Amino acid sequence: AKAHDAGGWEQLRILGLIGAAAAIGNFAGNFTAARLSLGHPARLVVRCAIAVTAVALATAVTGNLLVAAGATLITSGASAIAKASLDASLQDDLPEESRASAFGRSESMLQLAWVLGGALGVLVYTELWVGFTAITSMLIPGLAQTVVSYRGASLIPGFGGNRPVVAQPEELAVAHR
Q1: C-alpha 83 chain-centroid distance
Q2: C-alpha dist (Å) from residue 119 to 62, 89, 113
Q3: Fewer CB within 10 Å of terminal CB in the chain, N or C?
Q4: Where are the alpha helices (DSSP H) in the chain?
Q5: What pLDDT, in 10s, does the model give residues 25-68?
Q6: Whole-angstrom Cα distance, residue 163 to residue 31?
Q7: Which stretch, 44-48, 83-87, 151-155, has highest mean pLDDT?
Q8: What is the rounded CA–CA span in Å between residue 118 and residue 46?
Q9: CB 30 within 8 A of CB 84
Protein backbone atom coordinates (compact mmCIF):
# COMPACT_ATOMS: atom_id res chain seq x y z
CA ALA A 1 0.00 0.00 0.00
CA LYS A 2 2.86 2.40 0.77
CA ALA A 3 4.65 1.68 -2.50
CA HIS A 4 1.66 2.86 -4.55
CA ASP A 5 1.89 6.44 -3.21
CA ALA A 6 -1.84 6.25 -2.69
CA GLY A 7 -4.04 8.19 -0.34
CA GLY A 8 -5.50 6.76 2.84
CA TRP A 9 -8.63 5.27 1.26
CA GLU A 10 -6.65 3.66 -1.55
CA GLN A 11 -4.22 2.13 0.96
CA LEU A 12 -7.17 0.86 2.96
CA ARG A 13 -8.65 -0.71 -0.19
CA ILE A 14 -5.33 -2.43 -0.99
CA LEU A 15 -4.94 -3.75 2.56
CA GLY A 16 -8.59 -4.86 2.53
CA LEU A 17 -8.01 -6.79 -0.71
CA ILE A 18 -4.97 -8.57 0.73
CA GLY A 19 -6.69 -9.17 4.08
CA ALA A 20 -9.79 -10.58 2.41
CA ALA A 21 -7.65 -12.87 0.24
CA ALA A 22 -5.82 -14.13 3.33
CA ALA A 23 -9.07 -14.71 5.25
CA ILE A 24 -10.79 -16.50 2.35
CA GLY A 25 -7.71 -18.62 1.68
CA ASN A 26 -7.40 -19.58 5.35
CA PHE A 27 -11.08 -20.49 5.57
CA ALA A 28 -10.94 -22.48 2.32
CA GLY A 29 -7.74 -24.25 3.40
CA ASN A 30 -9.14 -25.25 6.79
CA PHE A 31 -12.46 -26.25 5.24
CA THR A 32 -10.67 -28.39 2.65
CA ALA A 33 -8.21 -29.90 5.14
CA ALA A 34 -11.05 -30.97 7.42
CA ARG A 35 -12.62 -32.91 4.56
CA LEU A 36 -9.48 -34.37 3.00
CA SER A 37 -8.44 -37.94 3.51
CA LEU A 38 -4.92 -37.34 4.79
CA GLY A 39 -3.58 -40.71 3.67
CA HIS A 40 -0.30 -39.21 2.43
CA PRO A 41 0.22 -36.06 4.50
CA ALA A 42 3.90 -35.66 3.57
CA ARG A 43 2.98 -35.58 -0.11
CA LEU A 44 0.41 -32.83 0.61
CA VAL A 45 3.08 -30.79 2.42
CA VAL A 46 5.36 -31.04 -0.64
CA ARG A 47 2.53 -29.99 -2.97
CA CYS A 48 1.63 -27.04 -0.75
CA ALA A 49 5.29 -25.94 -0.66
CA ILE A 50 5.43 -26.13 -4.46
CA ALA A 51 2.24 -24.05 -4.80
CA VAL A 52 3.44 -21.38 -2.38
CA THR A 53 6.84 -21.09 -4.06
CA ALA A 54 5.25 -20.90 -7.52
CA VAL A 55 2.84 -18.08 -6.62
CA ALA A 56 5.57 -16.14 -4.81
CA LEU A 57 7.76 -16.43 -7.90
CA ALA A 58 4.87 -15.33 -10.14
CA THR A 59 4.32 -12.27 -7.94
CA ALA A 60 8.04 -11.45 -7.94
CA VAL A 61 8.12 -11.63 -11.75
CA THR A 62 4.95 -9.60 -12.35
CA GLY A 63 5.00 -7.19 -9.39
CA ASN A 64 1.23 -6.94 -9.83
CA LEU A 65 -1.13 -6.26 -6.92
CA LEU A 66 -3.83 -8.67 -8.16
CA VAL A 67 -1.23 -11.43 -8.56
CA ALA A 68 -0.08 -10.66 -5.00
CA ALA A 69 -3.69 -11.00 -3.80
CA GLY A 70 -3.94 -14.35 -5.60
CA ALA A 71 -0.66 -15.42 -4.03
CA THR A 72 -2.03 -14.44 -0.62
CA LEU A 73 -5.16 -16.50 -1.22
CA ILE A 74 -3.22 -19.58 -2.36
CA THR A 75 -0.53 -19.24 0.31
CA SER A 76 -3.08 -18.89 3.09
CA GLY A 77 -5.04 -21.93 1.89
CA ALA A 78 -1.92 -24.03 1.31
CA SER A 79 -0.63 -23.07 4.75
CA ALA A 80 -3.80 -24.35 6.42
CA ILE A 81 -3.71 -27.61 4.46
CA ALA A 82 0.02 -28.12 5.14
CA LYS A 83 -0.52 -27.47 8.87
CA ALA A 84 -3.28 -30.09 9.02
CA SER A 85 -1.03 -32.48 7.09
CA LEU A 86 1.86 -31.88 9.48
CA ASP A 87 -0.41 -32.56 12.44
CA ALA A 88 -1.65 -35.75 10.76
CA SER A 89 1.94 -36.88 10.20
CA LEU A 90 2.81 -36.31 13.85
CA GLN A 91 -0.35 -38.10 14.96
CA ASP A 92 0.28 -41.12 12.74
CA ASP A 93 4.07 -41.46 12.82
CA LEU A 94 4.91 -40.95 16.48
CA PRO A 95 4.24 -43.10 19.52
CA GLU A 96 1.82 -41.71 22.08
CA GLU A 97 4.53 -40.71 24.58
CA SER A 98 6.37 -38.57 21.98
CA ARG A 99 3.43 -36.71 20.47
CA ALA A 100 3.09 -33.90 23.00
CA SER A 101 6.72 -32.81 22.69
CA ALA A 102 6.60 -33.18 18.90
CA PHE A 103 3.48 -31.00 18.68
CA GLY A 104 5.14 -28.46 20.98
CA ARG A 105 8.29 -28.33 18.84
CA SER A 106 6.21 -28.14 15.68
CA GLU A 107 4.11 -25.25 16.98
CA SER A 108 7.21 -23.42 18.23
CA MET A 109 8.88 -23.67 14.83
CA LEU A 110 5.72 -22.51 13.05
CA GLN A 111 5.40 -19.52 15.38
CA LEU A 112 9.06 -18.61 14.80
CA ALA A 113 8.44 -18.80 11.06
CA TRP A 114 5.48 -16.42 11.44
CA VAL A 115 7.68 -13.98 13.38
CA LEU A 116 10.44 -14.21 10.77
CA GLY A 117 7.90 -13.66 7.98
CA GLY A 118 6.40 -10.67 9.76
CA ALA A 119 9.83 -9.16 10.40
CA LEU A 120 10.79 -9.68 6.78
CA GLY A 121 7.59 -7.96 5.69
CA VAL A 122 8.47 -4.91 7.77
CA LEU A 123 12.16 -4.81 6.83
CA VAL A 124 11.97 -5.42 3.08
CA TYR A 125 11.52 -2.54 0.64
CA THR A 126 7.88 -1.96 -0.18
CA GLU A 127 7.97 -2.58 -3.95
CA LEU A 128 6.06 -5.82 -4.58
CA TRP A 129 8.67 -7.38 -6.84
CA VAL A 130 11.48 -6.69 -4.34
CA GLY A 131 9.60 -8.14 -1.39
CA PHE A 132 8.43 -11.20 -3.28
CA THR A 133 11.91 -11.74 -4.72
CA ALA A 134 13.25 -11.80 -1.15
CA ILE A 135 10.50 -14.22 -0.10
CA THR A 136 11.06 -16.43 -3.14
CA SER A 137 14.81 -16.54 -2.47
CA MET A 138 14.00 -18.01 0.94
CA LEU A 139 11.25 -20.33 -0.31
CA ILE A 140 13.33 -22.03 -3.02
CA PRO A 141 15.90 -23.58 -0.62
CA GLY A 142 13.06 -24.46 1.77
CA LEU A 143 11.20 -26.19 -1.05
CA ALA A 144 14.36 -28.01 -2.08
CA GLN A 145 14.86 -29.27 1.51
CA THR A 146 11.20 -30.31 1.69
CA VAL A 147 11.39 -32.31 -1.55
CA VAL A 148 14.76 -33.89 -0.70
CA SER A 149 13.56 -34.74 2.82
CA TYR A 150 10.38 -36.28 1.40
CA ARG A 151 12.62 -38.54 -0.69
CA GLY A 152 14.60 -39.63 2.39
CA ALA A 153 17.68 -37.39 2.23
CA SER A 154 18.60 -33.92 3.41
CA LEU A 155 20.43 -30.85 2.15
CA ILE A 156 21.42 -30.10 5.75
CA PRO A 157 23.23 -32.95 7.55
CA GLY A 158 21.20 -34.23 10.50
CA PHE A 159 18.07 -32.29 9.54
CA GLY A 160 15.32 -34.46 8.06
CA GLY A 161 15.64 -37.36 5.68
CA ASN A 162 16.21 -41.07 6.40
CA ARG A 163 13.43 -41.13 8.97
CA PRO A 164 11.76 -44.39 9.85
CA VAL A 165 8.21 -44.74 8.57
CA VAL A 166 7.09 -45.04 12.20
CA ALA A 167 9.37 -43.61 14.87
CA GLN A 168 10.64 -45.80 17.69
CA PRO A 169 9.30 -45.18 21.19
CA GLU A 170 11.65 -42.91 23.14
CA GLU A 171 12.74 -45.62 25.59
CA LEU A 172 13.90 -47.79 22.64
CA ALA A 173 15.69 -44.88 21.02
CA VAL A 174 17.54 -44.14 24.28
CA ALA A 175 18.51 -47.81 24.66
CA HIS A 176 20.09 -47.84 21.18
CA ARG A 177 22.36 -44.85 21.90
Answers
A1: 8
A2: 23, 29, 10
A3: C
A4: 8-35, 41-62, 65-93, 96-123, 128-150, 170-176
A5: 999 999 999 998 877 888 899 999 999 999 999 999 998 999 99
A6: 30
A7: 44-48
A8: 23
A9: yes
